[in-house]
Design a protein that fits this description.
Elements (H helix, E strand, L loop, with lengths): L1 H23 L1 H5 L1 E2 L14 E7 L5 E7 L6 E6 L3 E2 L1 H4 L3 H5 L3 E7 L13 H16 L7 E6 L3 H11 L3 E5 L5 H8 L14 H6 L5 E6 L8 H6 L8 E5 L11 H12 L7
Parallel strand pairs: 1-5, 4-6, 4-7, 7-8, 8-9, 9-10
Antiparallel strand pairs: 2-3, 3-6
């Protein structure tokens, strides 16, 4: 009996230590940046412009702007939680092929972006200032916001505030607590300082929304997109991609075919 009680006490201690780590080190469990030196040279197969954007606190954010051969407008792209634009920059191929310039933002602490992520508000503020800076170059032309995985909540928030031509969400989560519960049921949702409530922002978005999710997504369960349906407009769409996991959606031929149909259905640019 004493041995059982001792084992239970040890499990409780381990659990409390884990929850304490989660409370104070959440950034290390959510964000996995690849940092690049300031003199890093990007090598892509298309013209690219490096853009430095001052954040509200003076920290410099960095991103890459890829130019289409004959630009119809802008895709503002918010990538996943790992890597940097050195690898994420290749997503441009799916969108420049359809005639759109593509800006890929590196979050604070990623790539050449300075600083470190320390709060959800800061994350949103950074994406807001980057969007205003880059979208300002495309006044009167179509602006499409695309978010992948961790970037979906901020992409939806931008769309709720700025009403772009289109919002595309790739492998979105319903909210971060909902995702955490699906991955780690023993973790109480109230401990998370990062809520990333995608469902709140899509409900506030007047722009058309198209959601893509891989049926074989092993990280963000496809039911997340199904749950988001309750917050979408009747004309918004959820497209499930057969055989698609969490990573590599932009290279999926089925995704590209559906994306082309979506882009072709957009209203023409205003003269």
């Amino acid at each position: 009996m004493k041995g059982l009680l001792g084992a239970l006490a040890l499990l409780c201690i381990v659990y409390l230590v884990m929850m304490g780590f989660l409370s104070f080190q959440q950034e290390k469990l959510i964000f996995f940046p690849e940092k690049l030196p300031a003199d890093y040279v990007f090598r892509f197969n298309r013209e690219v412009e490096e853009i430095a954007i001052p954040a509200p606190d003076g920290v410099l954010l960095h991103g890459l702007l890829f130019k289409a051969d004959e630009s119809k407008g802008l895709v503002f792209y918010m990538h996943g939680n790992a890597g940097s634009v050195a690898s994420w920059g290749w997503v441009h191929e799916a969108y420049t092929a359809l005639g759109y310039d593509v800006f890929v933002l590196d979050y604070r602490g990623y790539g050449k972006s300075q600083g470190e992520i320390s709060s959800e508000k800061q994350f949103y503020d950074d994406t807001e200032v980057a969007f205003r800076e880059v979208a300002g170059r495309y006044s009167g032309r179509p602006i499409l916001v695309v978010g992948y995985s961790i970037g979906t909540a901020a992409a939806a928030r931008l769309s709720a505030q700025h009403s772009p031509t289109l919002l595309v969400l790739q492998a979105p989560y319903y909210s971060l607590p909902d995702l955490m519960h699906s991955l780690y049921p023993i973790v109480p949702g109230f401990l998370l300082r990062y809520k990333f409530e995608t469902y709140t922002f899509v409900a506030q978005t007047r722009s058309p929304i198209v959601i893509f999710h891989g049926e074989q997504d092993e990280i963000i369960y496809p039911g997340s997109s199904e749950k988001l349906k309750a917050h979408l407009k009747p004309t918004d769409r959820v497209i499930l991609l057969q055989g698609q996991g969490h990573n590599g959606m932009n290279e999926d031929p089925a995704y590209r075919r559906e994306l082309e149909k979506v882009f072709d259905s957009l209203p023409p640019a205003k003269p």
